[in-house]
């Protein structure tokens, strides 16, 4: 008897151990898939702080870029370029620029041309690396542009048509299972609407009544019956709108979070028309899996419990997997953020006269004490059009950048925690769906295909080399030349499909560039360039601007201010500064340099080489003139690389035909040199006195075009009034943006003093400081004052 009991117990333990191992293997697979996905998908986030929210045509948009690691929010030195664009409501870019990044920070500006129409626009920012992933996570910010000369009438009014959406908790309506449902009602401006609603079953039976709680979101509970029809009647300002609820599933899983205990969260799981099985709950944030547990459903029911202390601050993803390891339902949960940067600013007054000095004492700290912060400061005049911005760096990095949908008043969720805020945050999580797509991607076999590489040294010029029939030309060098007084030359080799990527480091401004392949091999190949900006991006619905709500007096004042500033300060407002880029030749050092004015001027280049260029020798081979570089060990074997004003020359005969009177200097490198993967038998670098190449004709198949590199820096201009003569100057000062300081950095004690001057414009002003520490703690603050005559 005892022997039978022992054998039975032994067999039970073997089966239990086998099941336990199988369950552990599923969790290990999910953990491994998640970790591998995160490691292969380094995530960048972009935040852009603009100097204000609304602009008049002919004004400048000033902005600062913060690029951080998508997991830690720490400034990330991965990409060196951010692509910025302004899109109109028709999804057309009206302005574009490539902004240089240094250690995760960049500064730029846009001039708003007079031909742009009045309306809402989207400012968009992303890196080349971000183009590998969902463009819905590009940075987006809505801005207003006003053109008083626009064809659009200032009396135009936009009808606010409500949009009604339903979000069952867990992702689906399941027949016979009690579901919590969020209802979101917004206008076409994206703002939540205050409403009351009832749920009707089969048009007559009222089963639920509810109303908007915050930002146009309300919730109700119902047990759907698959044989019934459900409608929601929404009451808005005396009008009633009917909307049909989503379809009901006859089988599946449902998830409900129970957040009624201070220390723990309950997760109630129910299933319908499914056999009991092992299920797995995975809870992760943007960095790690924080909780992994398995249970077996009992008559379609299971209850998990998690300590809140295990959850990180911000958004957590709750995902349920079936016994096959497939995601079946889930939802998001928000835990208040405490790792924030606190910025305090004290002004020396709350009221100033015109042309007066404003002095600020700024301090940055976190919960552990003073912190150095990299910040930006904007001070501008407010009115009925120009309001305080609704998007700030703290809420963007912790909330907006993690969700695909628009969020009304995101800063609200970072206030002092309380019952109302917790309920509003949970409603927001319900309406934001869950991340099944992330797990679908993570569980895919094999490494992801990443088409776009990070620009970790500078802007990458991508293109393709094809033959005259359109076929790819592989293993061929393509050269990118910037002719001029300080020419630059870059190159890259084509791949099997003819594609190439050239790193054009420190290339700023717009210049005429020359792209060509090795003409000594063929002169019929064709070079085409790829568009460096995103071609798949489409803006989400941009609400039309309700022009009728704009104050006509404010519009007239804006127009006058812009005209005066452009008339008196236009050149200073748009003055660009050359970037201090490296002007050293790519080969660093030359063997010998010849300044032509130091020698007798000969009428032909043949005589120049024959008479005094001692490191280069003319030879004949197969009836053609060629050049050889001489070294201590004899002549190098083939033609050297010949460069004329930064443009490679592949024909010695054509070089001999240029006008030597226009040659300024010649540098000789008498050693073998590797330029990327190409070995050169020495270098002859020739520069001329003018840009016309001394009569040299570039090969016919070369691609010559004006190419825009990184944006040249434009300096924000503001007058200084620190003496009587300046204060009494007759020059008008109609600035409404009093200060834009994109590089405001507090010291090790967290302190910074700053000062600026008011203009001739009385009114109410707001100052906004946004910043981040090297630990990824973000924060912002505002201060207000008025200016009186």
Automatic annotation (TrEMBL):
Gene3D superfamilies cross-referenced by the UniProt entry: 2.60.40.1930
Domain of life according to the entry: Bacteria
Protein name: MG2 domain protein
Organism: Candidatus Pedobacter colombiensis
